Amino acid sequence: MSRFTPLDPRNLFKALESANPSDTLPSTKTLLDAVRFNEAGLLPAIAQQFDSGEVLMMAWMNREALEETLATQRVCYYSRSRQKLWRKGETSGQQQQLKTATLDCDGDTLLLQVDQTGPACHTGRRSCFYVSLSNEHATITSEPLIDPATLYGKK
């Protein structure tokens, strides 16, 4: 057992605060047991383009989606509206290949470094973050790369 494996998994991320890159950490299974999924069993996951740093989207993962993503290196989310796993690009072809997955210090948010094929957003835009807000006005910061009707085969 690692010095970072407390008897109570809820304390694991607190114990990791003193960890260094050279330390031996608990297994991924042990870490996933300590992840703080919300009351619906979900974890927010932020997808970022690995080479540019561009934030592409935020979606939700349950443990099954996270385990599948780690095993296949193809990003899989959990669709709250459809109540099922959502393999990014299964309809649009705009897939995300996982480069790295990193948990935050509290174990309640995931950062995915990905290689995104085409647009990440269902609107056909590269990023889902295209509505810019100021104190008095909002602006659209990008145009769709692909018409959503074309992207999802709707004519």
From TrEMBL:
It is found in: Cytoplasm. Pathway: Amino-acid biosynthesis; L-histidine biosynthesis; L-histidine from 5-phospho-alpha-D-ribose 1-diphosphate: step 3/9; Amino-acid biosynthesis; L-histidine biosynthesis; L-histidine from 5-phospho-alpha-D-ribose 1-diphosphate: step 2/9. Binds 1 zinc ion per subunit. Binds 1 Mg(2+) ion per subunit. It catalyses: 1-(5-phospho-beta-D-ribosyl)-ATP + H2O = 1-(5-phospho-beta-D-ribosyl)-5'-AMP + diphosphate + H(+); 1-(5-phospho-beta-D-ribosyl)-5'-AMP + H2O = 1-(5-phospho-beta-D-ribosyl)-5-[(5-phospho-beta-D-ribosylamino)methylideneamino]imidazole-4-carboxamide. It comes from the Bacteria. InterPro entries: PRA-CH, PRib_AMP_CycHydrolase_dom, PRib_AMP_CycHydrolase_sf. GO terms for molecular function: magnesium ion binding; phosphoribosyl-AMP cyclohydrolase activity; phosphoribosyl-ATP diphosphatase activity; zinc ion binding. Mg(2+) binds at D104, D106, D108. It is an enzyme of class 3 (hydrolase). Keywords: Amino-acid biosynthesis, Cytoplasm, Histidine biosynthesis, Hydrolase, Magnesium, Metal-binding, Zinc. One of its GO terms (cellular component) is cytoplasm. Its cofactor is Zn(2+); Mg(2+). GO terms for biological process: L-histidine biosynthetic process. Residues 57-130 form the Phosphoribosyl-AMP cyclohydrolase domain. Catalyzes the hydrolysis of the adenine ring of phosphoribosyl-AMP. Homodimer. In the N-terminal section; belongs to the PRA-CH family. In the C-terminal section; belongs to the PRA-PH family. PANTHER family: HISTIDINE BIOSYNTHESIS BIFUNCTIONAL PROTEIN, HISTIDINE BIOSYNTHESIS BIFUNCTIONAL PROTEIN HIS7. This is Phosphoribosyl-AMP cyclohydrolase.
